[in-house]
UniProtKB/TrEMBL annotation:
<comment type="similarity">
    <text>Belongs to the DnaX/STICHEL family.</text>
</comment>
<dbReference type="Pfam" id="PF12169">
    <property type="entry name" value="DNA_pol3_gamma3"/>
</dbReference>
<dbReference type="InterPro" id="IPR003593">
    <property type="entry name" value="AAA+_ATPase"/>
</dbReference>
<dbReference type="InterPro" id="IPR008921">
    <property type="entry name" value="DNA_pol3_clamp-load_cplx_C"/>
</dbReference>
<keyword id="KW-0547">Nucleotide-binding</keyword>
<feature type="domain" description="AAA+ ATPase">
    <location>
        <begin position="37"/>
        <end position="183"/>
    </location>
</feature>
<keyword id="KW-0548">Nucleotidyltransferase</keyword>
<feature type="compositionally biased region" description="Low complexity">
    <location>
        <begin position="385"/>
        <end position="400"/>
    </location>
</feature>
<dbReference type="InterPro" id="IPR021029">
    <property type="entry name" value="DNA_pol_III_tau_dom-5"/>
</dbReference>
<dbReference type="InterPro" id="IPR027417">
    <property type="entry name" value="P-loop_NTPase"/>
</dbReference>
<feature type="compositionally biased region" description="Acidic residues">
    <location>
        <begin position="471"/>
        <end position="480"/>
    </location>
</feature>
<keyword id="KW-0862">Zinc</keyword>
<keyword id="KW-0235">DNA replication</keyword>
<comment type="function">
    <text>DNA polymerase III is a complex, multichain enzyme responsible for most of the replicative synthesis in bacteria. This DNA polymerase also exhibits 3' to 5' exonuclease activity.</text>
</comment>
<keyword id="KW-0808">Transferase</keyword>
<protein>
    <recommendedName>
        <fullName>DNA polymerase III subunit gamma/tau</fullName>
        <ecNumber>2.7.7.7</ecNumber>
    </recommendedName>
</protein>
<dbReference type="InterPro" id="IPR050238">
    <property type="entry name" value="DNA_Rep/Repair_Clamp_Loader"/>
</dbReference>
Length: 637
């Protein structure tokens, strides 16, 4: 006997053998059991999902003779043994007229077909017209079919099948009972293939079945055909490597290896995996598409673990990988992947585009890419007795810049290698001189040739140690001019607040003066900026909060403000009192806005008196737009 392909051998013979179309099965079985039959059925869906199979099963149900004669013989479970059932299965049943509309599109063909509608069935109970790909009929053919389709003789049933129902006229759709067949999910395909191969006695790898289920793209017939091909390719067995080579598709395990490298933040491993992929000559655009789809599955696994798509049979592995990423990283990687896919058309080659996209994912992650530790060059140190000198020098220099002291650091006590804030040029010079065997302390005039300029100036070291904002620090800080305005006095006090002792108690004036020195940020700063200091009894500080801002109050802000006060030497418990503010006192926010307005007014006044501006106004009739003037914000400590 000749070999029969799996798709035909394992075609369902009854509704109960049907796979993956439970919604259609239930409707037809109930209709048959209750005798509520329509005269025209339309089955729609993609190729290989069971449209023609359903029509043939329905034809057997209508004509099975095992249960007697007449309407009483209609059943939802055809026997498959009577003459009618066997004839339908073998394709020789006279009263089942199968028409391929793709090859018979002319109106003459349709009229010839309908000429025999009026005659009673020859062998069965009903004359069944099965018209496949009905959307291929011409407009004239549809018009010729309409009247008969709407009011056929009682012994006639129309079963229509199409992959493109949008092309059917609305007049035809309204005369049919329509059933839409679903795509076969890979899980259902793999389940059915497992059963079929078990019955056939074929050895297989489960991972190979997942490749076949994915490649079938929802079509069970395609899955069966591909399985036939895989059995022949693998000499009677279905193996993963054979199926991957046969399909020529990307091995999903390589994509998971890329995701694993992203989870480890291992750039070397990531590039090595891309190099291994390149040896197989893949479509790098498809690799990026598959990687992006996997990132989507990871995001779903983090939010709803049970909803993860299992189209590759790797749900457990996806859930395990999802636990190694933060939600922010996955969203960022997905967005970069989508953007990188569009940029591939502009890249010199697709491999470099894929590598740059992967590197961009790690480069832009919030945590950054961990760098290997760099072993510093050995540096010559000063004697142990002078180890405290650098810290003292830095402290004294900072005092000098603030203007509270004019004492300078001793040159011999400043060691460039000891200061973490030394500029790169200083460290590079220090390393160079260390290699030559010279000390890193600042050389004195007796130790250094006067004709050779020093590698750095004392001013640069002072500037580095104190992080002073002035680009060109003076050897001796000039005394600041005495302010003439009270607002400028307040601004000056914000920049250089007086140190607070543990025994001192704050009032509202002190609160305003030291607010910026607290170093608060975000919502905590915004909350504190709307407060007035109500009292300080040495144990508890009470801040009066503007009622309009009370919704922001939270314990986390209390802790941050308490820690900031402690850093300034004020160890207190903090309490908020939500009450109307004293109109005679400013909050830090009001003070900031007032000072900003004053600086804006001062800047506008300076511009109005600027000779160049006046010349422009006289020559061209120019007008100064005061709202566009942006004064420089006051410096914060």
């Amino acid at each position: 006997m000749s070999y029969q392909v799996l798709a035909r051998k394992w075609r369902p013979r009854t509704f109960h053998e049907l796979v993956g179309q439970a919604h259609v099965q239930r409707a037809l079985v109930n209709a048959l059991d209750q005798g509520r039959l329509h005269h025209a059925y339309l089955f729609t869906g993609t190729r290989g999902v069971g449209k023609t199979t359903l029509a043939r099963i329905l034809a057997k149900c209508l004509n099975c003779t095992a249960n007697g004669r007449g309407d009483e013989g209609i059943t939802s479970t055809p026997c498959g043994q009577c003459d009618s059932c066997q004839a339908i299965d073998e394709g020789r049943f006279v009263d089942l007229i199968e028409v391929d509309a793709a090859s018979r599109t002319k109106v003459e063909d349709t009229r010839e077909l309908l000429d025999n509608v009026q005659y009673a069935p020859t062998q069965g109970r009903y004359k069944v017209y099965l018209i496949d790909e009905v959307h291929m009929l011409s407009t004239s053919s549809f018009n010729a079919l309409l009247k008969t389709l709407e009011e056929p003789p009682p012994h006639v049933k129309f079963l229509l099948a199409t992959t493109d129902p949008q092309k059917l006229p609305a007049t035809v759709l309204s005369r049919c009972l329509q059933f839409t067949l679903k795509h076969m999910p890979p899980e259902r395909v793999v389940e059915h293939l497992t059963y079929v191969l078990g019955q056939e006695g074929v050895d297989y790898d489960e991972s190979a079945l997942w490749l076949l289920g994915k490649a079938a793209e929802g079509s069970m017939r395609d899955a069966m055909s591909l399985t036939d091909q895989a059995i022949a390719f693998g000499q009677g067995a279905v193996r993963h490597a054979d199926v991957a080579a046969m399909l020529g598709t990307l091995d999903h395990r390589h994509v998971l290896a890329l995701v694993d490298a992203l989870a480890d933040v291992d750039v070397q491993k990531l590039l090595a995996e891309v190099a291994q992929l390149a040896e197989q000559g893949p479509d790098f655009a498809a690799v990026l598409d598959e990687l992006t789809a996997t990132l989507h599955r990871l995001a779903v696994a983090q939010m709803v673990p049970d909803a993860v798509d299992n189209s590759h049979g790797d749900r457990a592995q996806i859930q395990q990988l999802a636990s190694r990423f933060t939600a922010e990283d996955i969203q960022l990687y997905y967005q970069i992947g989508i953007q990188g896919r569009g940029d591939m058309v502009h890249a010199p080659d697709l491999r470099s585009a894929l590598e740059m996209t992967l590197l961009r994912m790690l480069a832009f992650r919030p945590q950054g890419v961990p760098k290997p530790p760099v072993t510093p060059l050995p540096l010559r140190r000063e004697p142990a007795s002078d180890t405290s000198a650098p810290a003292e020098a830095s402290t004294e220099t900072a005092t000098s810049v603030d203007g509270s002291s004019t004492k300078k650091p001793e040159p011999a006590s400043v060691v460039a290698g000891d200061s973490p804030q030394a500029p790169a040029e200083v460290q590079a010079s220090a390393a160079h001189e260390d290699d030559a065997g010279s000390a890193l302390s600042l050389p004195t005039g007796a130790e250094r040739d006067e004709s050779e300029p020093p590698p750095w100036s004392l001013e640069e070291v002072e500037h580095t140690a104190t992080l002073a904002p002035e680009p060109e620090p003076e050897p001796e800080p000039e005394p600041e001019p005495e302010p003439h305005d009270a607002s400028l006095v307040a601004a000056t006090s914000e920049v250089t607040p007086e140190p607070v002792t543990e025994l001192g108690r704050w009032d509202h004036k002190t609160w305003l003066a030291h607010f910026d020195a607290l170093g608060l940020g975000g919502l905590t700063r915004n909350l504190a900026a709307h407060c007035q200091l109500e009292s300080d009894d040495g144990q508890t500080v009470i801040l009066r909060l503007d009622p309009s801002q009370s919704a922001m109050q939270a314990d986390v802000h209390n802790g941050r403000i308490e820690r900031a006060l402690k850093a300034l030497g004020l160890t207190r418990k903090l309490q908020f009192s939500v009450a109307e503010l004293d109109t005679a006192l400013e909050t830090p926010r009001q003070q900031e806005e007032r000072l900003l307005q004053e600086r804006h007014a001062q800047a506008v006044d300076l511009l109005h008196h600027d000779p160049n501006i006046q010349k422009l106004q006289q020559a061209f009739g120019a007008t100064l737009i005061e709202s566009s003037v942006k004064p420089t914000p006051a410096a914060r400590s």
